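Assemble and predict.
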Amino acid sequence: SQQGEEDPQALSIQEGENATMNCSYKTSINNLQWYRQNSGRGLVHLILIRSNEREKHSGRLRVTLDTSKKSSSLLITASRAADTASYFCATDGSSSNTGKLIFGQGTTLQVKP
Amino acid sequence: KAGVTQTPRYLIKTRGQQVTLSCSPISGHRSVSWYQQTPGQGLQFLFEYFSETQRNKGNFPGRFSGRQFSNSRSEMNVSTLELGDSALYLCASSDGRASTGELFFGEGSRLTVL
């Protein structure tokens, strides 16, 4: 399968704690993106990091990228109950600027109030 | 701007039937991509249309087809439905050119095949 792996598959934390999710991929990339999906609904784009970037921040989100290890991590700080969702990393597999993305299997995050 | 609109949201079909799903992209977006999401296989790319032409194709059998109209609206069709086609079908749009690569997803069409 071309799909990457995400780790952990499921994560349960208390409100206010930080959540870290990891993603590994298999092919060379131009960029890596993270998406969120609330139960059974559409995906929402969170953040994009380019292959020449190592770290990027957006609000409570911090993404790192290590192209030598073909891995990325998403950190959500000070989590809230509303952050409960599934999180997916997606790579473009070097097909930049097209709609073809390769998604990981996702991490299901539960934030308990 | 209105978001990506998918219709119908839910549908039930029986094996052997065919189904057509519709997607209206964000105004101005010329790229429409389709994904299948199942618990077992996760999110898998079906195909992408850009300016009415199929630009990319995933590894799905020929029973899965699509098209895009001049107004960028897209349809996908699945013929001779199988139980394994039960899934959430997601449509995503983007401007498809030199941009951030971000995709905007619709809420999906949930297909159940009995």
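The CA atoms of residues 25 and 83 of chain A lie 24 Å apart.
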